[in-house]
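Practice problem: predict the structure.
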Amino acid sequence: MDLQSAITCPECGHERIETMPTDACQFFYDCAGCGTLMRPRPGDCCVYCSYGSIPCPPIQGAREAGRTGDCCGNS
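Answer:
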């Protein structure tokens, strides 16, 4: 499982590598470039699934197990 994700701001394009939490979804993220408070897009429950280079750890785990579902373990 990869815990590093490049999160990209939809407003200014600033990109930053972050370590994703494994025990909770991250609902908000402050862009270091422009200060935009990022929130998940409709249908996603975390900013990494919406704006990250790879999805959050629960989605990665579900894919590895051959399951589908939405963010953070909800099916």
